[in-house]
Amino acid sequence: MTHYNWDEALGAEGLLALTEEAVTPPRRGRVPLRRLAALAACVGLVLGLVNYQALAAGVEQVFRYFLGVGVAEQKASLMIQGENLSMENRENLFLIEGAYQRDGVLTVPLDVLSRSETPGRVWDRQKFRIVVYGADGEKLTGVTRTSEGELVEISNGGRVESLHPLGDTWLRQTYYPQGYVNADSVIALFELPPGETGPFAFEVEAYSISDGWGEVLWSGTLPLEPPQAVDVTQVSREVGIGTITALVSADRYGVAFYTALDPQYTEAGGRLCQLVVPEVWFIDEAGNRYQSSMRRYTLAEDYMPELRLVEQPEGEIIAIEVNRVMYNISYGDGQEQSYPVYDNLNWIIELPQ
Asked: pLDDT tens digits for 236-258?
């Protein structure tokens, strides 16, 4: 295992490249099954089949894995989106997937895709935003979360400012074959009035050069419901300054991660801002390796996003390989940060047969 600080080793350009690497398109390769078995034997793993209520070792918190959302701490206030929502007009496809409510905050992802190579020139709509209404019919207040975890009101949240060529993400893998070539995404946070539980009405508005905001392209109701139980495989491993836990979905096509920092860091005022796991491979029974696609990533909330296998494997997935993890640790008021990276992990997560 190699350890370094990514800000010192890479600089600004390197950080950008590393971020892009996290959404590299799935590539296929092969790994000898003998090597797979040897690597699994060399790392200390705690492997067990657990249910939806997975308790992190040494942490008095309960984390769960939600398909379409990732890992989130389970609390009584948690409600997640049931049915995925979509709407297509003559130019764009709009998606709302993986929304959830917790601790007085509603989190709503919005994806906008276009078939046009030059979407802004096809019609006079170049920006979009999502607006959500409470039970009283009033607009909910848009907020963002600071590095200390506090909510701050913002006036320009929930906006898709421009569409750009599909990057090498799950959006490209899923929608490029259907003819979509440009896209952008936003994850909007809304502060809820005390006791507000939904359902919530929403509108997606378009911005035009001539009229500004206001034209409603799509309206509906956001369905939220209590989370349903899902079996997962849970695996934990100490990696540098913390213990990382992987939760693998029962269909073996998804994995999400969370971490508990070592006490010496939390006692010194350290707080985890990010856990990035950019190199995750799914391995089938023939030894084929398939790189994952990150569903989405945001600093807006403290859940850990899921990575999904988009490509159809040739055989059953029997293992998941993790080669690199990156921490972003904040201290005090957030002015001091550290960015430890642990590379060449050769962490093999064998799945029950």
From this structure: 999 999 999 999 988 999 898 88
